[in-house]
From TrEMBL:
Residue span, Amine oxidase domain: 23-459
Protein name as catalogued: NAD(P)/FAD-dependent oxidoreductase
PANTHER family assigned to the protein according to its UniProt record, in alphabetical order: AMINE OXIDASE, AMINE OXIDASE [FLAVIN-CONTAINING] B
Obligatory cofactor(s): FAD
The family this protein is said to belong to: Belongs to the flavin monoamine oxidase family.
Record keywords, A-Z: Oxidoreductase
Organism of origin: Sinomonas flava
Pfam family, one: Amino_oxidase
SUPFAM superfamilies: FAD-linked reductases, C-terminal domain, FAD/NAD(P)-binding domain
UniProt keyword rRNA processing, yes or no: no
Amino acid sequence: MSQQTPATQTREAVVVVVGAGPAGLMAARTLVKEGQRVVVLEARDRVGGRTWSDTVEGAFLEIGGQWISPDQTELLGLVDELGKETFQRYREGQSVYMAPDGTRTVYSGSEFPVSPGTLAEVERLTAILDQLAAELGPEEPWAHPKARELDTVSFEQWLRAQSANEEACNLIGLFIAGGMLTKPAHAFSALQAVLMAASAGSFSNLLDEDFILDRRVVGGMQSVSEAMAAELGDAVVLGAPVRTLKWSDQGVVATADGGASGRVAVTARRAILAVPPTLYSRISYIPALPRRQHQLHQHLSMGLVIKVHAVYPRPFWREANLSGTCFGAGQLVQEVYDNTNHRDDRGTLVGFVSDEKADAMFLLSPEARKAAILASIADYLGEEALTPEVYYESDWGSEEWTRGAYAASFDLGGLSRYGADQRTPVGPIHWACSDLAAEGYQHVDGALRMGRRAAAEVIEALSPAPARLRVTS
C-alpha cells in the first residue's frame, strides 16, 4: 500500500519570517504592532535560535547566549518591557591567571598579573584597537580608507607586526579570537577584529569581563524569545524548515516541511530571512539569488566553541575568596566564569574551549574529553572542580539549524569586499540576524536590532509612494 504524501497547508500573510530566534521574533513583533499580518516559520521544535535555556539532569543551564552588557540597550529595553528581571554575574573575590609557562597567579583588579613590559604592551595594543574601532565604527567599517589594508592581513599577522611581545599578543587575541569570533587569529582579518571591537563600543569593553558579561535574565535568555512568541500565538509555526522560496516583484511563496501534518506554504508580499548566513543555502530560491549574494554567502563561516557547564553541590571556589573568573590564553579552557543561577544553592561554572582546541577535543571519546576539560578547569580552581554533579557540553557545531558558534564572520578580504551588500534586500527578501549586525554584532542585542531594522525596511517598502502633485499653469 503506497504511503500518501501529506497535504500542503496554505497560509497567507503580508510578511513571512523565516526563523524564530530573537531577530525573527522581533521583526514579526514589530510588524504586528504596525498592523501587518505575519507568519513565522521555524525549523526547530522550539523558539529562541541560538538562545536555549534547558534543564539537564536537574540543573538549569544556559546552553546558548546568555549575557547582557550595559550598552545593549535594545535587549535591556525589551527585557524591561516584557517585565523580566535580571541579575548580575557573580564577581566577588579574586581572579586566576595561568601564564604561558603554567604558573598560576591569583590576583585582584582589572590588570593581568604579567610583567610590566607585557602589561605595557597589552595597554598599547588596546589603545591602538580602541582608536581603530572609533575611526572605523561598527556600521560601515568596509567604507573606511584603511579597510582593505586591514582586511587583507590576518589578525595574528597584524598583532605580530605591532608587537614582539608574544604573551601580550596572545592575551589580546584571546578576547577576539577565542572569546568572540571563536576562530584561530590566523583565520580572520584585522578588519574583522576591529568590527568586533567597534560593535561592543571599544576593544577595552571586550577586555572588561565585568562589562561584557554583566548580567543575565532570571529564567534564562530563551524566555525572552518565548515571551515574544507567546504574543504572536499561532502565527509561529514550529518544525517547519523552509525548503523553497519563490520570489518576484509581486511577492514570495515560502514552502516548508511540516512533518506529519504536511507541508506549509505561505504566500506573502515580503520575506525576512532571520537565520544565520550559513543556512541561507539550505533554501532553494526560485529564481536563484543574484551572483553577488551567492559569492558573499560563501565567504562567511561559523566559528567553533564548546561551552562547558559544570554544576557542583556548592560554589566551592567562593570559600577560597575566588570569583570563579579565570583566564589562560595557552590553556585548553581559556576562560572560566561563575555561572551560578539566581538564588541557587548549587554552584555552576561555565568554561569555553575554542577553535582548534575544540577540534582536538572532538577527536577524543566523550569520557576522555570530559576528563581533559575538567582537568583544565581544576588547574585554575583546584581538584574539587574534577567532580561536578552535572557536566554538559554545548556543541552548536553539531546543531542542524546552527552549525557553529557564536556567529558567522568573513574570511580574509571578505568584509571589505562584500560587507556593503550583506544587509541589502534582494527584491522582496530582507535579512536579519546577529551575524549582520553593527552594534551588538554576534549578540542577542544585535539580533534584536537587525529584526527591528528589517521590519522598518519592510514597512517602508509596503508604504504607498507619496502622491505626485500636479502642477498647473
